[in-house]
């Protein structure tokens, strides 16, 4: 037996030295015929990574060696063209091998996948004898089986075809031949063909399958009778999902998983909550009866999340079901972010300890672009999670659309998964044993190769889109079949009784016991752990019930700040720095010494470095975050000699907290959703998503609306995500000016988010540090600048960073402005401040004060009052902004400002100075931009 395999067996608890000869014999039998060993041993051997590079380099076991030598001979023998083969038999042999390949490639198109029998399966010529110049006369001829794993070197053609049909054209249809990696394909072929897609499951396994189907069906029937007409988006027609989920969790646990994170929309969600996660049925019934269970605004019951612990062969496993709005697929990247955070916490870069499961609807899977974005992130450095199990509950109807030509442009709803070469297993949902087989196969593939895999469970909806529908109005033929069709559970129970696996009384008793458990309000998950003793939960206690005015000491001793600064600008020998970047780092050395004022990029980097020094982890992603979209950050240095990169922030000191800085792929929606999911799972530290331009956040508006601004009030989930959104009118046109500040302010309520517009390097330094240090976990939206990154007036000193704090309102800074002489008070936010004070200087006006609102929400009433109080002789109040009047902060914050202004200046009304209302955010021509900017500044100061 080869050495690594022996070590693997030896390390398993139920193996011992005295049993190795016996185990070796079992393994040999398994290699010849997996069904010749018990299911328990088959499950064990299935999980051995026999085809990975790790094992293929070792001296093989004799049987493995013989098998691969034979395979090599067969492949060499038949990798010749028909023109070079002499005999008729040899030519036909090649045709047989082509036929075998056709079944592997296209057998799924002949598979019996639809429980309703309505799916049109067109004739596939590749699977016909005649297509390969074979005839009925060849059926009794023996042919070499080539690379097939049928455990026979030669077979009659009729037997080959029969076994191919059983393997590839029965209840499972496989799509994996699009995978480029030969090793992956051979692994799948061995697992599929060796049992011909029909492993022999033991009686206990089959009984357990029936019990889970009984629980799934029982809950739906119970809810239908107790709450008739109530919407629940039931699982009827797709009950096989519940045994599938049970197997995924139990098998994940046996493979070493400690956490499983699930994302799904509403179809079957209540059933998963009760029968997979172990939610107490009584709690669900209370929700149906409208009782308020949580101290939030709440959401409908089929959007709520849940978590629990279950016991598996490998120990306790924590299960989390993510909350999800009705934007169906948007939960998928949120789950990935949550999983990545858990993997980071567990130091699990391979994703062996935390497993993501995404459950989709067929129409949404094919129709919503975020699915593609989520697949695209699956193997990227910033977002990979070791492979996701994707389950499609394919009920063949999208709302009321059931014509394929209306719902998608591809044969299958799962074709999108081929873009990342994910294997796809189509399976008939009315064949629970086939469902169980592909579930085991999918999870083992995920663990073996660390890649996504898709299970397309073809099923149906027994009661239409929801329980208030009359589905026959739009699908008369489908529902005429459904109304006569026995349920999955009934069919399987009859099968087991007919095969003598169980008595009918046993099946009936399952139904009665499940009904009694529901009546009694008992948990229906037998493996549920009611009192978990594991450390699988993140402790959110320090972040709960924190007041908005909770302080945060963002000061940092000057000497230590300079020490950190020296580390930031120290570049190891051998790294050749690009000329302009070298100048940036030389200037930062001067800033550290006090010879130059600090600019924005350095203050921001110092904020990150000091947080790391204090023990706060940091994660930053965006489409150009390493360099910075406007070339201001250069946190990553690229060696001009060999192209390798060096990140000073990752090399400050040994044992420092995690520092992740990734340039993301070109996505807003999925990436922002990922970072939201990450931040809801990792409370400590600073998590930032940076838009290339703030305007581009438009592409992630659903994430902002459904999660970031409302998640805490709908689901009680805290989130400390920071969004950096470049914002400012520089004449770059309507797509590169506005981060749509007005949209964020419109969403502000109940202290849900922070919206800030910092205008100095010290302000960005302190606000970033405040976000990490202060235990308040609320999203922070920063309208970050562009031109201010290098503005000669937008500078700070080291002392500004080492002392002080973030100021919600910045007062007038000119010594020439005496409060009692001020007649005009101009209030603004953002970079327009610098245009205003420069024009004021040019006009030699000393009776105008300019005040900056740096935090727009929550509105800083007391700070605003305190800054304005000295100006007692004001005659004119002006709000000045760059954005058009119907955009920006004017309409959203006018009433908030007036609360203080009407108190201090009861006779005055604040007026607007800015661009006129516009359908677009900004002008496209520089000349128009300059003209508008001149006009609004003049209007604010002298108009």
UniProtKB/TrEMBL annotation:
Gene3D superfamilies: 3.40.50.12470, 3.40.50.970, Multifunctional 2-oxoglutarate metabolism enzyme, C-terminal domain, TPP helical domain. Residues 598-791 form the Transketolase-like pyrimidine-binding domain. GO terms for molecular function: oxoglutarate dehydrogenase (succinyl-transferring) activity. Keywords: Oxidoreductase, Thiamine pyrophosphate. Its cofactor is thiamine diphosphate. Its EC number is 1.2.4.2. CDD domains: TPP_E1_OGDC_like (cd02016). InterPro entries: 2-oxogl_dehyd_N (IPR032106), 2oxoglutarate_DH_E1 (IPR011603), DH_E1 (IPR001017), KGD_C_sf (IPR042179), ODO-1/KGD_C (IPR031717), THDP-binding (IPR029061), Transketolase-like_Pyr-bd (IPR005475). It is an enzyme of class 1 (oxidoreductase). Belongs to the alpha-ketoglutarate dehydrogenase family. E1 component of the 2-oxoglutarate dehydrogenase (OGDH) complex which catalyzes the decarboxylation of 2-oxoglutarate, the first step in the conversion of 2-oxoglutarate to succinyl-CoA and CO(2). This is oxoglutarate dehydrogenase (succinyl-transferring). It comes from Marinomonas phaeophyticola.
């Amino acid at each position: 037996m080869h050495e690594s395999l022996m070590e693997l067996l030896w390390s398993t608890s139920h193996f011992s030295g005295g049993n190795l000869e016996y185990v070796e014999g079992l393994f040999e039998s398994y290699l010849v015929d997996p069904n010749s060993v018990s299911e328990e041993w088959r499950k064990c051997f299935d999980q051995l990574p026999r085809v990975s590079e790790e094992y293929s380099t070792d001296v093989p076991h004799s049987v493995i060696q013989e098998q691969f030598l034979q395979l090599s001979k067969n492949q060499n023998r038949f990798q010749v063209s028909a023109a070079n083969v002499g005999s008729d038999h040899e030519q036909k042999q090649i045709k047989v091998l082509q036929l075998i390949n056709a079944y592997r490639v296209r057998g799924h198109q002949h598979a019996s996948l639809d429980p309703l029998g309505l799916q049109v399966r067109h004739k596939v010529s590749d699977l016909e004898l005649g297509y390969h110049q074979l005839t009925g006369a060849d059926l009794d001829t023996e042919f070499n089986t080539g690379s097939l794993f049928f455990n026979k070197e030669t077979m009659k053609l009729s037997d080959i075809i029969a076994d191919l049909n059983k393997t590839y054209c029965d209840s499972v249809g496989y799509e994996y031949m699009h995978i480029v990696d030969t090793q992956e394909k051979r692994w799948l072929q061995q697992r599929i063909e060796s049992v011909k897609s029909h492993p022999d499951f033991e009686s206990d396994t089959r009984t357990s399958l029936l019990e889970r189907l009984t629980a799934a069906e029982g809950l739906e029937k119970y809810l239908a009778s107790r709450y008739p007409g109530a919407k629940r988006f039931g699982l009827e027609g797709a009950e096989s999902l519940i045994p599938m989920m049970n197997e995924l969790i139990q098998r994940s646990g046996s493979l070493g998983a400690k956490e499983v994170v699930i994302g799904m929309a509403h179809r079957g969600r209540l059933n998963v909550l009760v029968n997979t996660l172990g939610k107490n049925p009584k709690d669900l019934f209370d929700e149906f009866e409208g009782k308020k269970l949580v101290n939030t605004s709440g959401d409908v019951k089929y959007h709520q999340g849940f978590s629990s612990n279950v016991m598996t062969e490998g120990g306790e496993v924590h299960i989390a079901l993510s909350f999800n709005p009705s934007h169906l697929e948007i939960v998928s990247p949120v789950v990935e972010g949550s999983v990545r955070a858990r993997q980071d916490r567990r130091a699990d870069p391979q994703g062996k300890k935390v497993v993501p499961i995404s459950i989709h609807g067929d129409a949404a899977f094919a129709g919503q672009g975020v699915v593609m974005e989520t697949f695209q992130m699956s193997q990227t450095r910033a977002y990979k999670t070791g492979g996701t199990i994707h389950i499609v509950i394919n009920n063949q109807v999208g709302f009321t659309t059931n014509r394929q030509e209306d719902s998608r442009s591809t044969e299958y709803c799962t074709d999108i998964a081929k873009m990342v070469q994910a294997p796809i297993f189509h399976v008939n949902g009315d064949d629970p044993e086939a469902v169980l087989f592909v579930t085991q196969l999918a999870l083992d593939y995920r663990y073996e190769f660390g890649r996504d895999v898709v299970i397309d469970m073809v099923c149906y909806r027994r009661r239409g889109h929801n329980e208030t529908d009359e589905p026959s109005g739009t699908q008369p033929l489908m529902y005429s079949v459904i109304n006569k069709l026995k349920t999955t559970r009934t069919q399987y129970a009859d099968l087991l009784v007919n095969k003598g696996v169980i008595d009918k009384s046993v099946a009936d008793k399952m139904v009665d016991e499940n009904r009694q458990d529901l009546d009694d309000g008992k948990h229906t998950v037998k493996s549920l752990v009611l009192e978990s003793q594991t450390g699988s939960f993140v402790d959110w206690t320090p972040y709960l019930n924190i007041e908005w005015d909770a302080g945060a000491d963002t000061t940092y001793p000057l000497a230590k700040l300079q020490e950190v600064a020296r580390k930031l600008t120290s570049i190891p020998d051998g790294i050749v720095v690009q000329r302009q970047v070298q100048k940036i780092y030389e200037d930062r050395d001067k800033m550290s010494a006090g010879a130059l004022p600090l600019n924005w990029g350095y203050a921001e980097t110092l904020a990150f470095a000091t947080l790391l020094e204090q023990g706060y982890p940091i994660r930053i992603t965006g489409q150009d975050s390493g360099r910075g979209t406007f070339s201001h950050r250069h946190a990553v240095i690229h060696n001009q000699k060999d192209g390798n990169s060096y990140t000073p922030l990752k090399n400050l000191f040994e044992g420092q907290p995690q520092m992740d800085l990734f340039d993301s792929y070109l996505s807003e929606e999925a990436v922002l959703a990922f970072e939201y999911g990450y931040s809801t799972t990792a409370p400590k530290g600073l998590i930032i998503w940076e838009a290339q331009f703030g305007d581009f956040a438009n592409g992630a508006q659903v994430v902002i609306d459904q999660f970031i601004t409302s998640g805490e009030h709908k689901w009680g989930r805290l989130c400390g995500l920071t969004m950096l959104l470049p914002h400012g009118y520089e004449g770059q046109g309507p797509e590169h000016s506005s981060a749509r500040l007005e949209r964020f302010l419109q969403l502000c309520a109940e202290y849900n988010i922070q919206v800030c517009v910092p205008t100095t390097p010290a302000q960005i330094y302190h606000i970033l540090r405040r976000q990490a240090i202060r235990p308040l976990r609320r999203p922070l939206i920063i309208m970050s600048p562009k031109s201010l990154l290098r503005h000669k007036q937008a500078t700070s000193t080291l002392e500004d960073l080492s002392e002080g704090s973030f100021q919600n309102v910045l007062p007038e800074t000119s010594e020439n402005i005496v409060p009692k002489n001020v007649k005009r008070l101009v209030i603004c936010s953002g970079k327009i401040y610098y245009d205003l004070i420069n024009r004021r200087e040019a006009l030699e006006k000393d009776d105008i004060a300019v005040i900056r609102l740096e935090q727009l929400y929550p509105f800083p009433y007391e700070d605003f009052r305190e800054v304005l109080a000295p100006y007692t002789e004001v005659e004119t109040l002006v709000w000045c902004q760059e954005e058009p009047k119907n955009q920006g902060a004017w309409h959203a914050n006018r009433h908030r400002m007036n609360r203080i202004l009407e108190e201090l200046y009861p006779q005055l009304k604040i007026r607007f100075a800015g661009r006129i209302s516009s359908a677009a955010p900004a002008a496209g021509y520089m000349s128009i931009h300059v003209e508008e900017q001149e006009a609004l500044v003049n209007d604010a100061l002298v108009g």
